[in-house]
Amino acid sequence: MQTRQLGTAGPVVSALGLGAMGLSGEAYGASDRGESIATVHAALDAGITLIDTGDFYGMGHNELLLAEALRGRPRDSYVLSVKFGQLRGPGPVFGPQDNRPEAVRNFLAYSLNRLGVEYVDVYRPARLDPAVPIEDTVGAIKEMVEAGYVRHLGLSEVGAETIRRAHAVHPVADLQIEYSLLSRAVEAEVLPVLRELGIGMTAYGVLGRGLISGHWSARRPAEPGDFRVHTPRFAPGNVEHNLGLVEALRRVAAAKGCTVAQLAIAWVAAQGPDIVPLVGARTRERLSEALADVSLSAADLAEIERAVPAGSARGDRYPTAFMDSLGVGN
Prior knowledge:
Elements: E1 3-5, E2 12-14, E3 17-19, H1 33-45, E4 50-54, H2 61-70, E5 79-84, E6 86-89, E7 93-97, H3 101-115, E8 120-125, H4 134-146, E9 150-156, H5 160-169, E10 172-178, H6 190-197, E11 200-204, H7 238-256, H8 260-269, E12 275-279, H9 284-290, H10 298-307, H11 320-323
Parallel strand pairs: 3-4, 3-12, 4-5, 5-8, 8-9, 9-10, 10-11, 11-12
Antiparallel strand pairs: 1-2, 6-7
């Protein structure tokens, strides 16, 4: 497994990270606890060191799951990235973001306890809290860095101005944001600012939540708890168009001798050594597919661009209510 550094101020991590949300049956339907733990073990054994979670994934279930999966592993053998601040209610209820300094300290204390660790490697607000200046939130995380409970500051789904303001208070290791062949809004302003300031990127949604995995079908029945049924890109009319892009990508992958998923992940990784793709594999089978080492030439990248041009996806990447909380669009 190759490595990459998260910006000039961040840790060195595996060139591919594991997004753990789906391991708790959060958002994509039911999951199997034994398979989830086995998938984490397989990722670690394959050399993946970066594991991303959120304290609100399964209302804490994900952190407890990871604590079990990581038990007995040397603490310096993995890098934990934790998002905080998203308020929840009983059932599938999402509230506002809470990034107040006192909330930062409270959320971190719970995460450290659930994960069973003495520090978090990268700590980041899940979204911007419009009621709290980013300087106040970052200042609170900075205090936790100085106290030894956090190693690095991260951000998630914020725009260029917020990145600059946060970085002026404390060096930002990386921005976590959606980036894939279907979601390229970061290329206009955000990615140039990251590179100007020496900040890395952890890219989630690299397979468009399964849409460009090569395994999705418009006739696939929806599982209980799978939020994709509410997502515009999976809506009737849009999904057929988007799967047409996948078929164009499939022809490129076939000529390259790889799967669609492997090609899509490789494309994100090829956008720069400062970008680390996160794969949300829920099983060892899907993880094994994602681990393939696919190198792309300039000709390959041009062919992929012709198959899936920027802006060619139909539908927003989140429902309208969620889009309003994002720093950049599609």
